């Protein structure tokens, strides 16, 4: 186990730089290169290379390299503190809001370096929507919640139509069409979360990032959101962080498994990517022992 | 099935300690007694003022101007002067207070020394005696650089300085009460920082900000010391005609009447105090109502 801890993070680097790997502490690879990156992904929407995020001086997640497929659902699973939320927040540069956060490595979005000098994080977020753990509707009417995004983006066209279309895509229209002017806080938790999804869809994003979107919801609301995700993946790429393995197995096409490691001094907790691949393989035939233990419920 | 014999409370729960209960009760009594000291003092003051003042309140008292004859004296110019002052104060503190609160909450990097100095200073300024602001107003607003003279504008600006720190502090609290998830939600939709603040955070914090503004105004309304220093007149037999007009105000009128040797003027002072108290109670009631009605429960 201890060798696993020491080597996993290093593997990606060493494989991509074979010579250095030969010279240095030449570890026994516990996972093959493709298990982490998944090169079977063609036309990736996101590619990360050695992506690390640290808060202040302590690294939160180290050396994540993966390719996220277009128009698919990709799930990030792993125990608390493994950095899955931190990574998803790199994809729309939400980490910019935390002054102490530092992002290293590369994130490419359709080939474009998201952290390049000339990239405006506001422009990034216009294309990449996000749904949060706890439903966070604005304290306004249902209509105004949806209309906010299109308004700030200056979208043209009839606002009524934009609102209706967004609510239909989130299969919320029939529930709320008679009370569009009511305050969103009067809705149930599940409806509020679908409203947040509709709000994100109203600006026609290319990607939808979902950070544990069902963790505050009951099973029925969760089911409706999962159905919704299946419909949405026709038109948007979805990355979902979940601590619910069954949910990952149900909804996702690909799964990335993260783990939290103690660093050598046992003080900092560092997240690492362990294994990444098609969901059915990750759940039925994981290559890494820790993935197997996690998906079979032995820890986490 | 047999039912178990009923058991006494002390058998089930253990023996109650009577000394504990006694100490508990005496502590509650002590707290109630201490609270009642404040309440009794307040009640005595109110009743005493009420007995003196209420018989004096009449339409003519509210509509007459001050006079050398107690029977003809009234507080119209004091009321209009106070309204003018509060108008100036509102006009100054709302934009300045909200802008400062937004800067400190949303933009200022708290780890920078200059922002920390601003913060500490605002906290301190809120506790500075108002007479110090009066001296400042006299030196810089009435005379000195601004040289506005003893006018409504000078008095209003001075009072604004007195309450501005409170407005900023309550404004920051109102803005901080908007959960970060609202900011994140707006930014995640591609809003700029300014759009998120202007269209989501500020509207959501308006009830809290308004409450702070009203409470600040109700503090400013009773301020006397700074107005005495900036030289508001105490005998003004006309309403202010504009920002550059001389003025008086309710607390000044009260102050002037109380210092008169004639007892009848003291009764008029009591009546004016009651009018001032009613205005204060109304303002505070509006503030409480605003807070209860519109404040968002997140």
From TrEMBL, chain A:
Domain ABC transporter stretches: 46-295
SUPFAM superfamilies: P-loop containing nucleoside triphosphate hydrolases (SSF52540)
GO CC annotation terms, alphabetical: membrane
GO molecular-function term, one example from the UniProt record: ATP hydrolysis activity
GO terms (BP aspect): phosphate ion transmembrane transport
Keywords: ATP-binding, Nucleotide-binding, Transport
The UniProt record lists the keyword Nuclease: no
Cross-referenced Pfam families: ABC_tran
Cited PANTHER family: ABC TRANSPORTER I FAMILY MEMBER 17
NCBIfam families xrefs: 3a0107s01c2
Name assigned to this protein: Unannotated protein
Organism expressing this protein natively: freshwater metagenome
TrEMBL record, chain B:
Keyword Endoplasmic reticulum: no
Membrane spanning stretches: 27-47, 83-104, 124-142, 151-171, 224-243, 267-288
UniProt subcellular location: Cell membrane
Predominant place of localization: membrane
One GO BP: phosphate ion transmembrane transport
CDD domains hit by this protein: TM_PBP2 (cd06261)
Domain called ABC transmembrane type-1: residue spans: 79-286
UniProt cross-references to InterPro entries, sorted A to Z: MetI-like, MetI-like_sf, Phosphate_PstA
SUPFAM superfamilies assigned to the protein according to its UniProt record, in alphabetical order: MetI-like
Entry annotated with the keyword Transport: yes
Keywords: Cell membrane, Membrane, Transmembrane, Transmembrane helix, Transport
Pfam family, one: BPD_transp_1
One GO molecular-function entry: phosphate transmembrane transporter activity
NCBIfam families: 3a0107s02c
Family: Belongs to the binding-protein-dependent transport system permease family. CysTW subfamily.
PANTHER family: PHOSPHATE TRANSPORT SYSTEM PERMEASE PROTEIN PSTA, PHOSPHATE TRANSPORT SYSTEM PERMEASE PROTEIN PSTA-RELATED
Protein name: Unannotated protein
Organism: freshwater metagenome
């Amino acid at each position: 186990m201890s060798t696993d801890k020491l080597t996993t993070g290093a593997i990606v680097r060493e494989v991509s730089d074979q010579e250095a790997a030969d010279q240095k502490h030449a570890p026994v690879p516990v996972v093959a290169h493709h298990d982490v990156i998944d090169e079977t992904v063609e036309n990736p929407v996101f590619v990360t290379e050695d992506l690390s995020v640290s808060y202040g001086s302590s690294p939160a997640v180290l050396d994540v390299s993966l390719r996220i497929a277009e128009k698919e659902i990709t799930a990030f699973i792993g125990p608390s503190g493994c950095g899955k939320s931190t990574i998803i927040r790199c994809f729309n540069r939400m980490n910019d809001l935390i002054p102490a956060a530092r992002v290293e490595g590369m994130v490419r979005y359709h080939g474009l370096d998201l952290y390049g000098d000339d990239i405006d994080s506001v422009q990034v977020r216009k294309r990449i929507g996000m749904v949060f753990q706890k439903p966070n509707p604005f304290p306004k009417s249902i209509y105004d919640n949806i209309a906010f995004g299109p308004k700030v983006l200056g979208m043209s066209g009839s606002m009524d139509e934009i609102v209706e279309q967004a609510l239909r895509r989130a299969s919320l229209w029939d529930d709320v069409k008679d009370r569009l002017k009511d305050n969103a806080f009067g809705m149930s938790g599940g409806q509020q979360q679908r409203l947040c999804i509709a709000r994100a869809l109203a600006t026609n994003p290319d990607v939808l990032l979902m950070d544990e979107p069902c963790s505050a919801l009951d099973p029925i609301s969760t089911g409706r959101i999962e159905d919704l995700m299946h419909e949405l993946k026709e038109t948007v790429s979805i990355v979902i962080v979940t601590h619910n393995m069954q949910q990952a197995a149900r909804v996702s096409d690909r799964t990335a498994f993260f783990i939290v490691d103690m660093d050598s001094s046992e003080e900092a907790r560092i997240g690492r990517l362990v294994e990444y691949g098609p969901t059915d393989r990750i759940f039925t035939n994981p290559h890494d022992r820790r993935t197997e233990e996690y998906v079979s419920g032995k820890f986490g | 099935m047999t039912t178990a014999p009923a058991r006494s409370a002390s058998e089930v729960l253990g023996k109650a300690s009577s000394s504990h209960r006694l100490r508990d009760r005496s502590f509650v009594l002590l707290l109630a007694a201490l609270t009642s000291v404040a309440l009794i003092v307040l009640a005595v003051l109110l009743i005493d003022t009420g007995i003196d003042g209420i018989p004096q309140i009449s339409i003519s008292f509210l509509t007459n101007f001050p006079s050398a004859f107690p029977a003809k004296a009234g507080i119209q110019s004091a009321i209009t002067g106070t309204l003018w002052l509060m108008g100036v104060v509102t006009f100054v503190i709302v934009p300045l207070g909200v802008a400062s609160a937004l800067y400190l909450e949303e933009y200022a990097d708290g780890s920078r020394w200059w922002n920390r100095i601003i913060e500490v200073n605002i906290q301190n300024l809120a506790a500075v005696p108002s007479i110090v602001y009066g001296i400042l107003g006299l030196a810089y607003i009435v005379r000195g650089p601004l040289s506005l003279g003893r006018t409504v504008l000078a008095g209003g600006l001075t009072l604004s300085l007195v309450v501005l720190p409170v407005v900023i502090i309550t404004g920051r609290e109102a803005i901080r009460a908007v959960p970060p998830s609202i900011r994140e939600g707006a930014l995640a939709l591609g809003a700029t920082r300014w759009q998120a603040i202007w269209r989501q955070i500020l509207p959501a914090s308006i009830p809290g900000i308004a409450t702070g503004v009203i409470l600040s105004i109700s503090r400013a309304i009773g301020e006397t010391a700074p107005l005495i220093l900036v030289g508001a007149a105490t005998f003004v037999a006309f309403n202010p005609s504009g920002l550059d007009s001389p003025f008086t105000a309710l607390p000044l009128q009260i102050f002037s009447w109380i210092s008169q040797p004639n007892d009848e003027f003291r009764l008029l002072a009591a009546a004016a105090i009651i009018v001032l108290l009613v205005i204060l109670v109304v303002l505070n009631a509006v503030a409480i109502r605003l807070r209860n009605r519109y404040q968002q429960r997140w």
